[in-house]
Amino acid sequence: MIEETLVLFKNIRNPDYDKSLKGYKKSGGFKALKKALKMKPEELVELVKSSGLRGRGGAGFPTGLKWSFMAKNTGKPSYLICNADESEPGTCKDRELMLKDPHNFLEGMMIGCYAINCRHGYIYVRGEYFPSIKSLNAAIDELYTDGVLGENAFGKGKRLDLTVHTGAGAYICGEE
């Protein structure tokens, strides 16, 4: 019999999991970010490309390939956008992560921001997901208070901000 190994959902199925920043760190959170920060952004993009990691939307587009499309050294700001609208029929993959393991969700955003050398990430969330929005915003506040986000993000003297933007649930808003 094949045994299931949970990676992304390992914490959300644990009823005793502490989703605070302290709890996330205690459960081994930020190991992936620490590993990523030891690499050059280009190396990280190549690693993600070779891993076969795909987006969680309907198309399952390769994440590393998408990151590799970012223009390099333009002098213009770049942004990472996370579409957590869940506009595909019958889907509910994002809201559980945002609600029950927000720091895991945000760690992925921070890794993506580092990989494409951007200073601001936006998370687009369906407006009806009040509990998930509240959970994400509370986690983001904890990251600013702890100094993980803001002026000296990653301890590298560069600013990184994450912002939750809510929508109205219209399908056209969730399209890429």
TrEMBL record:
Domain NADH-ubiquinone oxidoreductase 51kDa subunit FMN-binding: 48-176
Gene Ontology MF annotations: 4 iron, 4 sulfur cluster binding; metal ion binding
Keyword field: 4Fe-4S, Iron, Iron-sulfur, Metal-binding
PANTHER family recorded: NADH-QUINONE OXIDOREDUCTASE SUBUNIT F
Protein name according to UniProt: NADH-ubiquinone oxidoreductase 51kDa subunit FMN-binding domain-containing protein
